[in-house]
UniProtKB/TrEMBL annotation:
A Pfam family: Inositol_P
The EC number(s) this enzyme carries: 3.1.3.25
Entry's transmembrane regions: none
Keywords assigned by UniProt, alphabetized: Hydrolase, Magnesium, Metal-binding
The organism's taxonomic lineage, starting at the top: Bacteria, Bacillati, Actinomycetota, Actinomycetes, Micrococcales
Catalytic activity: a myo-inositol phosphate + H2O = myo-inositol + phosphate
Record PROSITE patterns: IMP_1, IMP_2
Enzyme class, first EC level, given as a word: hydrolase
Protein name: inositol-phosphate phosphatase
Amino acid sequence: VEELERLCIRFAVEAGRFIRDERPPRMGVAATKSTETDVVTVMDRRSEELLHRLIQQARPDDGILGEEGADVAGSTGLTWVIDPIDGTVNYLYEVPAYAVSVAVVVGDARTEQGWAPVAGAVADPSLRLVHHAGRGTGARTRPEGDLDVAATALTVSGEDRLARTLLATGFGYAPEVRARQADVMRRVLPRVRDIRRIGSAALDLVRVAEGSVDAYAETGLNAWDLAAGWLIVEEAGGVVVGAQGRPGKELTVAAGPALVEQVRTLFTDGTPD
Ligand code: IPD
């Protein structure tokens, strides 16, 4: 696990530096995906190609599943689940809150069930930081430039009251999904301290892990949005759940143990997407 964690850190940092430092001067939208709001830039694709290459050099027999289409079966039972730019809309507008998320999972990440992260890293190129965890090894943050520098251990907030909860959330790209999410927000907003829409699910999860928000909840996430952050939250003492059991498309809720059930109830009371 420690070796896999080191590789996650190395790959996430390298791709993070690439998207920050090699950003073309007049970068536009390369394509749209599910809707006109769901954008891909040329750098999403190039970052995924870079990660693909790095992974295949170091671990040629592992599987790869990437947001921009990477899908390699592998033969080891381990799959690299990668988001080459999480927070693409922020990246497009130069809002400094985007990430590269790299995780290694056991099991088949193409399905909603039956996989679990064992190592992961989320690079935050704007802050030049990398957040990482291995199953059983704790969650840490370090500067991207010097991986020998002593890391800071991450711990979730101890908040236990919704009324004092700073809650991060995010929204999907489809109008009908957003309409349902807006209905949920009508119910949630009056009950919490405030809401943050940071724009990167991976960074939202990191923020829960470091206690700079108390909780995070969002519907519609894919494996690559949450695989690394899920492990980082758990290794920071937090809990990540879904509407019933594990997190996934239906719902992902992350918080400290004293808060997580309250947030889950808030989001499942009614019919959030
Ligand atoms: C998106 C971001 C956003 C979240 C969306 C994700 P992308 O990922 O994480 O914060 O609200 O659900 O799809 O498209 O920028 O990789």
